[in-house]
Every structure is written in structure tokens, then in C-alpha cells.
Amino acid sequence: MNIQKQRMDRMYGAVTRINAIYENYAKQNGMSYLEWQMFYALQSAKEEEICLTQKMLCDKLKASKSTVNSIVRKYLSEGLIELKDKTDNKKEKLVVLTEQGKECTNRIVLPVMNAEMGVMAQISDEQLDVLIHAESVFAEGLEELLFQKKE
């Protein structure tokens, strides 16, 4: 097997393992991976003091409008999130955690964020920069080659 194929297999294995960790964690907490990702995104936005619209969630999660809408409706009915009017555009709604939703993210998202920070603290800044750059270049190249417009 050539060296590039071995590297690809190792990278694919690492990415698959990381995704499986998140998926299993979500499942252990009674959610789908995408549902858990929504709460992760809402927690991240809360920490940055910004609010997300459903469209922004679609972009962040790389999910369809109907999928995100279904998830929002589910957790709206469970009282974990609420929709608020966006001041500059009444058609767009902001997805906001309720107090119950904040308790939920404290229980199921913050432990993961803390674990991620703990792992990242074990990796040098230079290694992290190389990793992030390489992943970005790989994702952009793969997306371009797989989904390029046929002319």
C-alpha cells in the first residue's frame, strides 16, 4: 500500500473515531448527533453573546432547512428553546435557549467543551495550527473535487 493511501486511511480512521465519540455521547444523552450539535452551537453562540437564526443553524450544522426546523419544533415543544423575533427582520426568528435549555446544555454540552479544551491543552499551538490548516485545505479540496460544477 502506498504512503498516501496509508495516510488517508489513518486520517479517515481518526475522523471516524472522533465523530463516533460525539455520536455515542449524544445517544447516551437521548439525542441524535444533529440534535446535540444544535445545542452545542447554541451554547457556543451564547458564550460569544450572539443569537442564531434557524438559517444560521442550517449553515453551522450543514443540515437542511426542514431537518433543522424539525429539531427546533421538537425542542420548542419540550420547552428547551424558544423563538424570538429578530429586531431587524421579523420574518427571521432567533433560536434561544430557555432556562430549562440552559440547564440542559450545562449538563450535556459543557462537559464536552471542557473535555475538548483539556485535550487541546495537551497539544501545542503549532500542532493545532497545522492540524486546523490541513483539515481546512483537505475539506475545501475534497468539496471542490466532489461537487464541482460541470460546465
Description:
The structure is a single chain. This protein is mainly alpha-helical. It has one domain: Winged helix-like DNA-binding domain superfamily/Winged helix DNA-binding domain (Arc Repressor Mutant, subunit A, Orthogonal Bundle). It is 70% helix and 11% strand. It has a three-stranded antiparallel sheet. Helix 2 crosses helix 5 and helix 3 packs across helix 4. The longest helix is centred in the first third of the chain and has 26 residues, at 3-28. The model has no long low-confidence stretch (mean pLDDT 93).
Task: Describe the secondary structure blueprint for this structure.
Blueprint (H helix, E strand, L loop, with lengths): L2 H26 L4 H15 L4 E2 H8 L3 H13 L3 E6 L2 E9 L1 H10 L1 H11 L4 H23 L4
Antiparallel strand pairs: 1-3, 2-3
- First-last Cα distance: 35 Å
| Class computed from helices, strands and strand pairing | mainly alpha
Fraction of residues in β-strands: 5-15%
Helix content: over 70%
Give the strand order of the largest sheet, numbering strands 1, 2, ... along the chain: 1-3-2
Q: Which stretches of 5+ consecutive residues score pLDDT under 50? A: none
CATH topology: Arc Repressor Mutant, subunit A
Could you name the CATH homologous superfamily? Winged helix-like DNA-binding domain superfamily/Winged helix DNA-binding domain
Count of domain modules: 1
Strand segment tally = 3
Q: What count of helical segments does DSSP give? A: 7
Give the rounded overall mean pLDDT.
93
* CATH architecture label: Orthogonal Bundle
General shape: globular
Give the quaternary arrangement of the chains. single chain
Strand/helix succession: HHEHHEEHHH
Major sheet attributes? 3 strands, antiparallel
User: What is the C-alpha radius of gyration, as a whole number of Å?
Assistant: 18 Å
